């Protein structure tokens, strides 16, 4: 029998669900996948919980963006939260848990940190045997995504992978895959003036009005397609604004044409959301970044600027002038287009699924003591190999495949060696009787249970990171 793949997302913005849909499309074409389903965990939670997470975030981003930035920075340190899931979240997760049990997946992919934490708790309790993956959806890695157990972890770029491995996480479980997108097929190149694709986002942000107003003052020859999302009031306002120049502007509401529009456009003007930016890069489309949400979108923009694939406009009053300058500079747009194409990862969804389904059978378990060490190393700006003494990190590796199955603190090894030590220095983890379990700490019990899965015992090698 083939895989039963469950993709868990959360509808905070459109990006997480877009990544889930991209994965679903690729999975549906794989011969080793019998059935695939996407579940937005917020859609099966309470209305209050769903509105607070999905709508509350954007209310704060519009009204008090400094608070969003503060929240992003506070939640950025890896494993800052190490305790159990809070009661309110756990209560709202019950319908999602029922759906997981009903579907009985053999593999799970999480495109939001909320279901990723839920799945990790199921792995540690022995309530789940499916292979699990966490797929981040921004170019910048945020520590909030890290969980205590998973089979594979995917970040958008190489720097994120280096960041995690320097903190002690095993490189065999971290992949720089890019962000999963639904890539459009190539379209014929049309002659004519450059086309600006101005996006207000799926919800339709009012900043698009200011952008369009400034393009009316441009001197360069161009056409523009304005996508207003689901905001019909915004669409009507912009249609009225550009009425004197109907020959130059095309105004759309929510559209399924976005992938092909990205292929036809010469320049994207909008916010650097993780999925929007990834779609542009995969299409080789340079960006003019406007009105980024503090936190992840600002950091996404920093990366695109660093790659040479974007320019940023920090004030609406200069957007038209900046685009004029960009279009007038010989070769500038072509260089940005090349940089975007080099940055893009159109095969990210294929890489995620291939790595997960063909990869490690056992999960990686990170003990709470090890999580505390990772958090401390992050705060002190040191790499894991610099740590010594009881707080140093060690890995338990399955020799047959070379998969790291656990990240532990050195101080935890004494107890494990006392119970499971072999003469050659390896450990033979095994299911123990109640008497032995009573002498083992709770963390060691969870580790052994999750790593063994349905097996009776497993021999692992110990690798000291400092050594």
TrEMBL record:
Domain Glycosyl transferase family: 225-342
UniProt keyword ATP-binding, yes or no: no
Record SUPFAM superfamilies: UDP-Glycosyltransferase/glycogen phosphorylase
Keywords: Glycosyltransferase, Transferase
Keyword Cytoplasm: no
Signal peptide range: none
InterPro entries the UniProt entry points to: Diacylglyc_glucosyltr_N (IPR009695), Glyco_trans_1 (IPR001296), Glycosyltransf_28_UgtP (IPR050519)
Pfam families hit by this protein: Glycos_transf_1, MGDG_synth
Record-annotated Diacylglycerol glucosyltransferase N-terminal domain positions: 16-181
E.C. number(s) listed in UniProt: 2.4.-.-
GO molecular function: glycosyltransferase activity
Family, as annotated: Belongs to the glycosyltransferase 28 family.
UniProt name for this protein: Glycosyltransferase
The organism of origin for this protein: Amnibacterium endophyticum
């Amino acid at each position: 029998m083939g895989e039963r793949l469950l993709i868990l997302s959360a509808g905070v913005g459109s990006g997480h669900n877009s990544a889930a849909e991209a994965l679903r499309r690729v999975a549906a074409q794989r011969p080793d996948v019998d059935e695939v389903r996407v579940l937005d965990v917020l859609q099966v939670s309470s209305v209050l919980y769903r509105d607070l997470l999905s709508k509350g975030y954007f209310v704060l981003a519009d009204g008090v963006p400094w608070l969003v930035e503060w929240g992003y920075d506070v939640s950025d340190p890896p494993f800052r939260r190490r305790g159990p899931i809070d009661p309110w979240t756990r209560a709202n997760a019950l319908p999602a848990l029922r759906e997981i049990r009903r579907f009985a997946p053999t593999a799970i992919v999480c495109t939001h940190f909320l279901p990723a934490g839920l799945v990790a708790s199921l792995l540690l309790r022995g309530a789940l045997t499916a292979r699990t993956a966490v797929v981040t959806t921004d170019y910048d890695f945020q520590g909030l995504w890290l969980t205590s157990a998973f089979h594979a972890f995917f970040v958008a770029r190489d720097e994120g992978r280096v960041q995690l491995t320097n903190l002690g996480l095993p490189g065999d479980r971290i992949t720089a895959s890019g962000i999963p997108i639904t890539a459009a097929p190539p379209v014929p190149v049309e002659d004519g003036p450059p086309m600006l694709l101005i996006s207000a986002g799926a919800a339709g942000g009012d900043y698009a009005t200011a952008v369009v107003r400034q393009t009316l003052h441009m001197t360069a020859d161009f056409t523009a397609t304005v996508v207003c999302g689901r905001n019909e009031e915004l669409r009507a306002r912009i249609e009225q604004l550009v009425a004197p120049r109907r020959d130059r502007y095309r105004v759309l509401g929510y559209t399924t044409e976005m992938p092909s529009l990205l292929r036809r456009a010469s320049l994207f003007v909008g916010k650097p959301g993780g999925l929007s930016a990834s779609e542009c890069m995969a299409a080789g489309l340079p960006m003019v970044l406007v009105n980024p949400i503090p936190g992840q979108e600002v950091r996404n923009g920093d990366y695109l600027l660093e790659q040479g694939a974007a320019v940023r406009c920090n004030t609406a009053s200069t957007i038209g002038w900046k685009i004029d300058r960009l279009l007038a500079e010989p070769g500038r747009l072509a260089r940005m287009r090349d940089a975007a194409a080099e940055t893009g990862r159109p095969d990210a969804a294929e890489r995620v699924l291939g790595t997960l389904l063909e990869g490690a059978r056992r999960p990686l378990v990170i003990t709470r003591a090890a999580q505390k060490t990772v958090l401390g190393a992050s705060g002190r700006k040191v790499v894991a190999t610099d740590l010594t003494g009881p707080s140093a990190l060690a890995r338990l590796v399955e020799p047959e495949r070379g998969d790291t199955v656990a990240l532990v603190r050195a101080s935890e090894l004494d107890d494990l060696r006392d119970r499971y030590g072999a003469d050659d220095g390896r450990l033979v983890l095994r299911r123990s009787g109640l008497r032995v379990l009573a002498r083992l700490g709770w963390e060691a019990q969870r580790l052994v249970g999750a790593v063994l899965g349905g097996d009776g015992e497993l021999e692992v090698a110990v690798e000291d990171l400092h050594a």
